[in-house]
Each structure stands twice: as C-alpha cells, then as structure tokens.
Amino acid sequence: MARRLPRAAALTLRFAREKPLGTIGGVIILGLLVMAVFADRIAPYAYDESIARMKPPSARFWMGTDNLGRDIWSRVVYGARISVTVGFATVALATLIATAIGISSAYVGGAYDIVVQRVVDAWMSFPGLVIVLSLMAALGPGLLNLILALSVLGAAGASRVIRGSTLSLMQNPYIEAARAIGAGHARVILCYVLPNVMATILILATIGLGTVILAEAGLSFLGFGIPPPYPSWGGMLSGSGRTFMYYAPWMALFPGVAISLAVFGFNMLGDALRDVLDPRLRGAGSVLRA
Is pLDDT of 3 > 60? Predict the structure, then answer.
C-alpha cells in the first residue's frame, strides 16, 4: 500500500503537467461533487427559505436573492445535487444499455446485428429534443422519468461507438485463441472483450456527463425537468430568472455560469482521458515526443 500511494501521486502529477485543462476540469468536477454531497452544510440557507427580496450580491448574499427572497447561492448549491444525480445516474444507465447493445451486436453478428443496427439507425434519425419531449410528455415530469428519457436517448449513439470498437477488437488473435481453448461466449465477452473496450466506455461516459447536464438544464428551462420548489439550474434560468433579467441580472447569470462550468469541466476531463487512454493517441504522442 505504501508503494502504491507514491505511484498514484506521481501519475496524478504527471497528468496535471501534461493535461492542464483536464486537471482544471477534474478540479471543477470535484468541487461539483463536494457541493452535491455536502449541500446541506455548504448552503447558508434552505433552498426555499425566504429572506430578503431581490438583494444584489453582497457579503451576506454572495449571489444575491431572487424575487421570492431566496438566496441564489444556496439554490445553486442545491441545484448541483440535481445535476450530479441526473448526470451520473443517466450516464450509468445509458452506458449499461449501450454496452449491452454494442458488444452483443458486434459479437453475435449476422441477422441479429443487422436488425439491431437498423433499429438504432431509426432511433437516431429522430431529433433528440423531439424524442425527449415526447417521452417526458408521456411519462410526466420527475427525477426518475427524466433519467429514463435521457438514458434511452443517449444509449443509441454510444452503442454505435462501442460496436465499432468491439468489431475491431474481434479481429485480434487472442479472441480466436480463447475460443480455441474452449472458452464459452460469456467468458470471452467478460474476460477478453469487455476489459479491452472499457477505455472507450469510460471516455464516452465522461464526455456524456457534460451533455446530460446540459440536456437536463434545457428540459428544466422548458418546464419538463424537476418540478419546483426544488432548484434546478435550468429552472432558475427560466421563469423568474428570465422575467427579472433586466432588473436583477444575477438571478440568471449565476445559474448560467454554473451550467457552463460543469459542462466545461466534464468535457475537458473527457478529452484528457481520451488522450491518455486511447492507445492510438498515446502512440502519436510518443512519436512526437521522440
């Protein structure tokens, strides 16, 4: 254990030195996670507590107050909990579905692959916003329904990438060697295919987090997200934030900044992980360094 800690610290320092934007993204994500987990302790007031109406940013109210007297900073902190919950739950479910579809389609092949890919093509041909709005209109607003709608939407595109990575992996000799020694299909997939496409899955999940947070904010802005009074960054931009934008611009400014920072952090970390985990990019980087 004592030997692993210095190695982990050295890898972290090397990552920070070679990927500064990725490190900044990781710090932003860490701060977002801390806000989400410890929102009750970080926020000075409850998210629905009325204190003073339409106060500008000050030492007492860091981000000002809204038209109902609620502290914007406290609502932004509690909104981070919604974004983290929706983001990670949606990406986890979408990644699970995409992995099952992509790997099974590439591994089985034949008629199964053709049918599944035509269904995926048909699903991807519809505009994403139309699909999500239709699902939310049918299921109704709510956290679970929002996660389910975004997961179904995100799984289709990710499954195509995972399928392509699996198809190239199936050409490697060790797959044929595993089959030659009598390994079953489940053993080949779990021991040889899945570990070797895990880097692709991790990259897709990390980059997809930013997209999901932005999609959740957009749906909340349109009124299909988390119902009030629980705060959502997109919901804070809509309604009173849009109505009082000229009189109290801080009501829309700070939730917008929170959304931008969260998406920026996940995208930068995802790009950095792609450069580190993709063997082809590592090879190109080593040639350049040589």
Answer: no
